[in-house]
Amino acid sequence: MPGPGMCWIGKEEMDEVMDVMSSGYLFRYGNLEDPAFKRKVYTLEKEYARYIGVKHAVATSSGTSALMVGLLAMGLEPGDEVIVQGYTFVASYSSVVFAGGVPVLAEIDESLTLDPNDIEARITPKTKFIMPVHMLGNPCDMDAIDQIARKHDLKVIEDSCQAVGASYKGRKLGAIGTMGAFSLNIFKTITAGDGGLIVTDDEALYERAFALHDQGHSPNRASVEIGRRNIMGLNFRMNELTGAVALAQLRKMDRITSTLREKKRKFKDAIGDIAGMKWRKVYDPDGECGTLLTVIFDDTDRAQRVAAELGTKTVSGSGWHVYSNMEHVMNHLKEVGQPHGYGTLPRTDDILVRAINLSVGVVDAGLGSAFGIHINSADDEIEAAAEKFREVALKEA
Ligand SMILES: *Cc1c(COP(=O)(O)O)cnc(C)c1O
Q1: Structure confidence at residue 223 (pLDDT)
Q2: Helix/strand/coil for 167
Q3: pTM above 0.70, yes or no
Q4: How far are the Cα atoms of 48, 156, 190, 256 from residue 193, in angstroms, in the given order?
Q5: Residues 168 and 118 both lie in one domain
Q6: What ligand 1 atom has the least distance to the C-alpha of 183?
Q7: 275: exposed, middle or buried (C-beta count within 10 Å: 0-12, 13-18, 19+)?
Q8: Are 244 and 271 in the same domain?
């Protein structure tokens, strides 16, 4: 039971897919005037851009490709440094590396997102981008990050892959930076199995992103336009079947987030205050996805014992989300002469070893959220999970 969108796959997704299947045409481009062409990816891009509140969206094969396309569209050149937090999914780093850049690790704060106070210390003459990652459906401190970016003339690309549908002070995440990337993988808020989107308000960046994701073509081509392609691209296109599922999921988005927020509130209230434990900081409680409830204990041993007894792990033990757990990324940073390995980010290490992610909508052992509730949990299940957590947390005090 990975993400909430997957739990709600139903007739709407089937109808959209059958619409494509019965047309017999699965490629994203076709004649927009022809009713036999179902234009699901085209429609997804329009509806997604409207939902996020930006002018343009490009649908991609994954969140990883969306990030890479975004970085290249924004002009990343070989050796450019990208400041990104030490607690994120591996794709935040690999997309930078494959785009030719160098990820530079920075600390998180108690929101488990990029600590704005640690950014300036990481800036060098090579720094070109900041990649705040809205981890666990929770917005970064975007006002502070935006201020630093302006002061140092850096561009911001928001990794919103885990925060589809979340917002910060009334603006959807992904719409605040110069570009924003999203994922439709099964562990995310809404899903099409795999898939992604990259969004922007900037016309020129949109055209560049479009070209990069499709062999240099301009948006919504009818055929191959020889002599009109200025930049080289690759193929990170979405097909109509994926677009069909994504479209049905997008239309459920607000219902998913409102349901998650309500279940999270019940879960949190039922757990209540526990001495020696706090909730993670949330920069906009009205805007988070509500996919996870994260607690931070004062005491490391207690956090370890509580996690073990609940059959889960502290965040430090979760897989490819903690910088020092990613051996391939650490090897790469070593090769390019960047700080790497456990201990590089002492504040991050200290927070993650005391933190436990409780699932609300994303049940993922790889994220450390093997214990908790899910989007379809009834009130009695929520109360039982809260009671169990309370009992263990108090016993291990
Ligand atoms: C999932 C995820 C990605 C990558 O998305 P994919 O669609 O799996 O390629 C990037 N960044 C973060 C923070 C993620 O959680």
Answers
A1: 75
A2: strand
A3: yes
A4: 17, 27, 9, 17
A5: yes
A6: 7
A7: exposed
A8: no
Which CATH number does the domain housing residue 125 bear? 3.40.640.10
Residue 179 shares a structural domain with residue 267: no
CA of 299 to the centre of ligand 1 (A): 31
Atom 1 of ligand 1, nearest CA residue: 161
Whether 174 and 271 map to the same domain: the answer is: no
Ligand 1 mean position, distance from CA 304 (Å): 27
Q: Running along the chain, 397 residues long, what does each successive block of 10 average in pLDDT? A: 94 98 97 95 98 98 98 98 98 98 98 98 98 97 98 98 97 98 97 98 97 94 78 97 98 97 97 98 94 98 97 92 96 95 97 98 88 97 98 96
End-to-end CA distance of the chain: 31
pLDDT value of position 384: 98
**Which residue, 250, 280, 303, sits at the end of a domain?**
250
**In this structure, are 93 and 173 located in the same domain?**
yes
Q: Which residues approach ligand 1 with their CB closer than 6 A?
A: 62-64, 88-89, 91-92, 133, 159, 161-162, 183, 185, 194, 196
Closest ligand 1 atom, residue 184 Cα: 7
Q: Which of 112, 183, 245, 329 to mutate to test the pocket of ligand 1 (most atoms within 8 A of CB)?
A: 183
Tokens of 379: 């009130």
Residue ranges making up the domain that contains 45 = 4-250
**Interstrand relation of 155-159 and 127-131 (parallel, antiparallel or unpaired):** parallel
The number of domains in the chain is 2
Domain end (from 234, 250, 266)? 250
